[in-house]
Amino acid sequence: MNILDQIIANKQKEVTERKSLYPVKLLEKTIYFNSPGVSLKKYLLRDDLVGIIAEIKRKSPSKGMINKYVNVERTSIGYMQAGASALSVLTDTEFFAGKNEDLTIARKFNYCPILRKDFIIDEYQIIEAKSIGADVILLLANVLNTAQVKEMAKFAKSLGLEVLLELRDKEELPAINEFVDAVGVNNRNLKDFTVNVDQSLIIGEQIPSDFVRVSESGISDAKTIGKLKKAGFRGFLIGETFMKHSRPELACANLIKEVSSLSAQTVVA
Question: For this structure, is 57 an active site residue?
Fold first, then answer.
């Protein structure tokens, strides 16, 4: 089994357990369940922001522990003060050392779009995402088939959640459907964890223009973001680049300043 297969196998067991511990009726009673969401799509299209989706990620299967002692409250607030367009919070525990409480803490202290970053295989997880304060869910086209993606996305929309659909290669393009708000291209291969930012350029040109495009993983400098912007991308999901620093929010602020400066130079030129 590759790492992705291991993650999904573990997720199936986890979801079964959580269903018994936290029934849907209980999730529907949280203070967030009936609250209106904040639109990721609208924030990524704002001209006063650079499109960075700043991620809180303690650990990854490929790099091990990245930032074990991250302060979610301070980091999430710092990300938004730095000018991030949205937050992404890893909630997988076994492989990424995240937890649902991380997202709820971020929600408590920030009014902005928050993406629940996890491996969704069951509608229960979508209900759970809404209950913990998420505005957006991630669906993986290499985990779900085309019919499942559409079914899950439609269900998410019925709860007032937006959907970021993640693609890894051109064969997954048919998974795009009318219930999706943004289409992401993961530059990291989830089977062997190699990274190639050119994946976004290759696949991005085939994503219909009415979907907001997001490039994910392996982005670490302003020039790469500038290159992706020229190719039509409006969102840039960045985690490890920030999280490897003791103060991730400061690393985020510095990159946003560099992107803004580069954009200004381009306009003048």
Answer: yes
